[in-house]
Structures are given as C-alpha cells and as structure tokens.
Amino acid sequence: MEFFPLIERFVSAHFPRADVVVLAGSTSRSQRTPTSDIDLLILGDHLFDDGHESLAATYLFEGEVFEVFAYTSAGYEIWATRGLEQHRPVIVQMLLDGVTVRGDEERAGYRRAWEPRYAEGPVLTPVERDHRRYVITDILDDFVDATDPLELHVLASALFERTAELVLLTNHRWIGAGKYLPRRLREFDPERAERLSAPLLSNDHAAFAGRVREELERAGGRLQAGYSR
C-alpha cells in the first residue's frame, strides 16, 4: 500500500523493536477522508524500556497523524480481554481485520489465539440486560415528555445509542462507539437499522419512540417498578 513506506519509517523511529505492525481503520480500507489518521496496532515484547506493557498515543510524523495502540503480549492480553468484557473489542478487531505491515507469522499466532474468542460474540448477562432495559425505559419516558428542542435532541441521541446497543448485544453482536455503532447495526440487520434510524433522521419523534418501544419489547419489554440495582 502507498502508506507502507511512511509507516515503516514511523515505526523505525518510534518502535524499532516491534514484532507486529498492523494498519487498521479507514486507511487500511482505502476509505480515507480529509481528516483521517493512520491507526496502528503494534505488538512486541521488547517495545518499552520502562517496564510498561501498553501505550495508546497520538503522534504527528511527516505531516500525518498516527493513532498508536502498542502492547507487549501480556499487555495485549489484558486490554483485549477488557475490550471483550466491555463488548467493544477494538484492538481485537484491529488484529483480525487490519492489514499486516510487519510480522505476518507473528500476527498469525495472535490471530489463532483471539479469533475463536471474537467469533463467540458477546454474552449479555440477565443482570446487564435488565439494567439496559431499565435505562432505556427511563430515557424513553423523558423523551416522550420533553418539549425543549435541545433536550429532545440529546435524549434522542441517547435513545438511539442505548437501543442500538441492546439490539446488537441481545443478538450476540459486538457494539462500537461513535460512527462504528450505526455501522455495526447496519451490518447486523440493514432493515432494522433503517427502521430505527429513519424517524430519528426525519425528526419524527412519535415514530422514533414507537421504534424504540418495538426493540425494547423484543428484549423483554419495559422495566421500571420493582427493578433494583
């Protein structure tokens, strides 16, 4: 790829002992925008001199912004496991979906270890499911009663985020933050994604509330009185 020489110069300057370098994000998919950065996953047991096991940092190098996620094998185990537990396995997705810049054989070993765990999908416990139903019920009631335009906007955004996450998690699908959440929802079920998002985008508040209720019912319905936490 056209960015490989630049990436190699960056890695040689900042992480010369890297065993694995994976290019992820929009640059890896040839979908860069004017503000795109270069997302790198960097792995190696001798990356750091100070005893650290992980680093997430932003660099400016030769006019490009680099977003770096660097780990020893022990550090990757900790942070990748945490991502799976939080249902947002960002660095596992980088490992599995990115493009190898350095260390193809070493990356293959990581992939063998993490691909099965990723393929299992998230497990939503009954406690977490109930909590998510309770939160959506509370936000939905506030949304239906709201009259202030700014409050409506904020509540609608919160409702979409929480509802989209519930849809994905109850179907053993990983969630994402920001722009990745609607992408995950569309990947899972384009029709349900459209049904939920269309009234939101057209500011049809009553229809949007109805779509949220539909998805809430699929997950077990409203939860309010009698809920304890």
From TrEMBL:
Transmembrane segments: none annotated. Gene3D superfamilies: Beta Polymerase, domain 2. Pfam families: NTP_transf_2 (PF01909). Residues 8-51 form the Polymerase nucleotidyl transferase domain. InterPro entries: NT_sf, Polymerase_NTP_transf_dom. CDD domains: NT_KNTase_like. This is Nucleotidyltransferase domain-containing protein. It comes from Microbacterium galbinum. The lineage of its organism: Bacteria, Bacillati, Actinomycetota, Actinomycetes, Micrococcales.
